[in-house]
Write a structure and sequence with these properties.
242 residues; alpha/beta; 5-stranded mixed sheet; 9 helices; elongated
């Protein structure tokens, strides 16, 4: 039985993951949070999941590398320096770094990439997302994931095509760009919709998270897939066989 260790076990996602682990045929090897022994947890686990904070990532990656334990990083709000840490650690261990561990969202991203590739620049792309009032980052990591899929479909980078703020802009919409709308309020677990708007027609590809459990179940399934993989950086799309 695969032993899964949880970094950030005192948070909401950590607690949700601990709940679903037995139902998916695995065993929780324990958890660690601020002030706990990261190395001991890594040694006691076949695979780790990290849903903590960006500031804790470096210590978790060190513990995982020293123990040669694969790790799924689901922490959001990571910047370029964090991605560089993940890339470096992937030389020694298997890693999945995912902005969203929902299997549905990752399938949606594949659909968005295909649609953007086939429809062309004359179709405008807008990413709309809504989350609970406590979420601090905007756009959400998932919105960026979906926008990146659209950009990839057009053979461009997310940085080249994204337009995050239209305040005080008086010029028409730039062809081929990707816009964002971020809504915050109530207790919404996570709603995402990608709108592809052409002349006289519109396609809306969306996903609604009704419970945090979908992210926990996706994370555990991905961790089980990752547990026996060789060193390298993997994606949720690999877990889905896309």
């Amino acid at each position: 039985m695969t032993r899964i260790g949880i970094f950030g076990n005192r948070g909401r996602m950590g607690a949700a993951i601990a709940t679903v682990i037995p139902a998916l045929g695995a065993k929780a090897s324990g958890g660690a949070d601020v002030g706990d022994d990261f190395a001991a947890l890594a040694d006691a686990s076949d695979v780790l999941v990290d849903f903590s904070s960006p500031t804790a990532l470096a210590g978790h990656l060190v513990a995982a590398r020293e123990a040669k334990t694969p790790i799924l990083v689901g922490t959001t709000g990571l910047d370029g320096s964090h991605m560089a840490m993940v890339d470096d650690a992937a030389r020694d261990i298997a890693i999945i770094q995912a902005a969203n561990t929902s299997l549905g969202i990752n399938l949606l991203a594949a659909m968005v990439e295909q649609a953007a590739a086939r429809l062309g620049n004359d179709w405008d792309v807008e990413v709309v997302e809504m989350h609970h009032r406590r979420k601090v980052d905007a756009p959400s990591g998932t919105a960026l994931l979906l926008a990146e899929a659209a950009a990839n479909g057009r053979g461009k980078s997310l940085l080249e095509l994204s337009r995050f703020d239209r305040f005080d802009i008086t010029d028409p919409r730039e062809p081929g760009t990707i816009g964002f709308a971020s809504l915050r309020g109530g207790s919404v677990a996570g709603d995402h919709m990608v709108v592809l708007a052409g002349e006289g027609e519109r396609i809306e590809l969306g996903h609604r998270a009704e419970t945090r459990e979908i992210f926990a179940r996706g994370a555990v399934k991905a961790a089980l897939w990752l547990a026996d993989k060789p060193a390298g950086r993997y994606k949720m799309s690999d877990v889905l066989g896309l």
